């Protein structure tokens, strides 16, 4: 007879380990309880952790910076561009100033932000500000860290450090004298509950709150500034924004008024000087008239006097402008006033000079701001000083030109006046001298009146000065915290909860190199897999007969399926040999129960123990007699019937045990008496099952295999190293065993372990088509 097969070009994987998505999904399903426990623990830890985090809120305010029209800033930018100086956006400068340490420090001082209040909680403390039931005022300067707890008792008393005090009392602490005041509107929720009070240095508080303030443009192309404040208390964030805008507004007004105040100081100084000079001239005129007994100043030459009066008026105006211009020129040349603002008196100098002085004063104010924030070594301050010096030189040159022009005009007017005076020489000398004194008096009076008017104008400017900003949006924002994000933490915890057991299981899978089910066998070999024997119960020994015609459990059905598959792939096969890679893979258990399964189908079966070294089947059956396979092969017995045990494990299953262990089992198995024995057994039985030794331990399996028609290679699930499977495939391709097939023992079918288990009754794809005996 001939055994044929057809290869369908099945691809065999190299020895290794691959995990696909289905493996992972089935791994999760198979170990769902570990995943559920891990996710539960991680979610619980994440939830508890989020409860300990302090919520962070964000509040915003929007402010419009008015920069439209021609102003001092545009004059500054134009002058700096002409002189090669540094220019920048006015709005960007205001955004920087809003976050300056000086402004934030003033906000801290106004709001007493160096003192913070908290309510104790189980997971975390809650920050209080406007909600605090008490307010602690520190009387003495104290710049170190200080912490205490105040517990309100009622509307009159509280305790601190275990001592009872009344609200408003001054008490002595290590931080100096303090006074605790009550906020009655918040008391009801905090009676008997301690409030933590912490004080830090104002500098530290300013640095902390400055970090929570940011500025940005509210929109592209706009001059609206969005001020954002983040913190752990909404009311405090709103208070900080309001106070910051107020302090910034006051600073702008103070800067603008500083020019007017400096101008007022200059005007007051000049009024005092001119007033004294006017008094001296009037006293001189009075003395002159008394000495010369002059009652009036009228005389002859009315026509000349009218012309002279016109020229005197013109000369008077020019002399007034010249006097003020020279005073400003002296002010510019005074080195002690280099860092002071230049008085800007309208009406003196042309429009260009006045614009230059205005631009200089605005730049000086910005320089003083930068100097206060960063010091004299700041490159921007040094560049600004250089620009100021250049602008002062330009203004001085412009004043020189203006004074020269006045001198020329004044000389021309005086020349005309001298010409007129020469025409009236007939006028009495006393009248001429009187007119000279009166002229001086008029000059001083005009200058005095001019300065008084300028002082009133300057005072009016001080009264109506306003900042160039407008609050568009008062502090607003959501009452929901922007951080932390519990959903993010819980989602991350959920992912970690899945990843931990998944990683552990994958590591276990990577570390485990044993065969894990039929998928490994099908992936790494082309050897037909005839059946899977499920794991038997722990109380079942190797000699247990689990097959019964009255049972339909999973393990009984697996042996029936193995029987059917053997009949399917090789219908006329009668001699079956069982072997394995190493001991302990269950070939004796499988061979015994397969014999019973075949016998149940109405066949006569003989189970031959060909393991002449360990006598496994003999030991399982408890047979100790001396006659058996060894005595037959050695020629001591020729009668087969005399060495057979009838119906020991099943009425239709006979057994042929080893008998005494021979000293030369391999040589006995190589004798032709083995073929003779098999032929004799074929006459008596439908199936002959040979329970042989492990194939990779001794050579007996290969020797006995010459009489086998079908080799059943038993592999225990989870025991054989799958790296051996390519070697088994090589033996199969080289034909080392007759018609090699595999039986997977101890398969965890019901668990579908690692995605490799398959349920029974759904067919098998072997990659081979088997013919029948011919």
UniProtKB/TrEMBL annotation:
<comment type="similarity">
    <text>Belongs to the etk/wzc family.</text>
</comment>
<dbReference type="GO" id="GO:0005886">
    <property type="term" value="C:plasma membrane"/>
</dbReference>
<keyword id="KW-0547">Nucleotide-binding</keyword>
<dbReference type="InterPro" id="IPR005702">
    <property type="entry name" value="Wzc-like_C"/>
</dbReference>
<dbReference type="InterPro" id="IPR027417">
    <property type="entry name" value="P-loop_NTPase"/>
</dbReference>
<keyword id="KW-1003">Cell membrane</keyword>
<keyword id="KW-0808">Transferase</keyword>
<dbReference type="Pfam" id="PF02706">
    <property type="entry name" value="Wzz"/>
</dbReference>
<dbReference type="GO" id="GO:0042802">
    <property type="term" value="F:identical protein binding"/>
</dbReference>
<feature type="transmembrane region" description="Helical">
    <location>
        <begin position="489"/>
        <end position="511"/>
    </location>
</feature>
<feature type="domain" description="Tyrosine-protein kinase G-rich">
    <location>
        <begin position="431"/>
        <end position="505"/>
    </location>
</feature>
<comment type="similarity">
    <text>Belongs to the CpsD/CapB family.</text>
</comment>
<dbReference type="GO" id="GO:0004715">
    <property type="term" value="F:non-membrane spanning protein tyrosine kinase activity"/>
</dbReference>
<dbReference type="GO" id="GO:0005524">
    <property type="term" value="F:ATP binding"/>
</dbReference>
<keyword id="KW-0997">Cell inner membrane</keyword>
<keyword id="KW-1133">Transmembrane helix</keyword>
<dbReference type="InterPro" id="IPR025669">
    <property type="entry name" value="AAA_dom"/>
</dbReference>
<feature type="domain" description="AAA">
    <location>
        <begin position="578"/>
        <end position="696"/>
    </location>
</feature>
<feature type="transmembrane region" description="Helical">
    <location>
        <begin position="32"/>
        <end position="50"/>
    </location>
</feature>
<protein>
    <recommendedName>
        <fullName>non-specific protein-tyrosine kinase</fullName>
        <ecNumber>2.7.10.2</ecNumber>
    </recommendedName>
</protein>
<keyword id="KW-0472">Membrane</keyword>
<keyword id="KW-0418">Kinase</keyword>
<dbReference type="Pfam" id="PF13807">
    <property type="entry name" value="GNVR"/>
</dbReference>
<keyword id="KW-0829">Tyrosine-protein kinase</keyword>
<dbReference type="InterPro" id="IPR003856">
    <property type="entry name" value="LPS_length_determ_N"/>
</dbReference>
<dbReference type="InterPro" id="IPR050445">
    <property type="entry name" value="Bact_polysacc_biosynth/exp"/>
</dbReference>
<dbReference type="Pfam" id="PF13614">
    <property type="entry name" value="AAA_31"/>
</dbReference>
<keyword id="KW-0067">ATP-binding</keyword>
<dbReference type="InterPro" id="IPR032807">
    <property type="entry name" value="GNVR"/>
</dbReference>
<keyword id="KW-0812">Transmembrane</keyword>
<feature type="domain" description="Polysaccharide chain length determinant N-terminal">
    <location>
        <begin position="19"/>
        <end position="110"/>
    </location>
</feature>
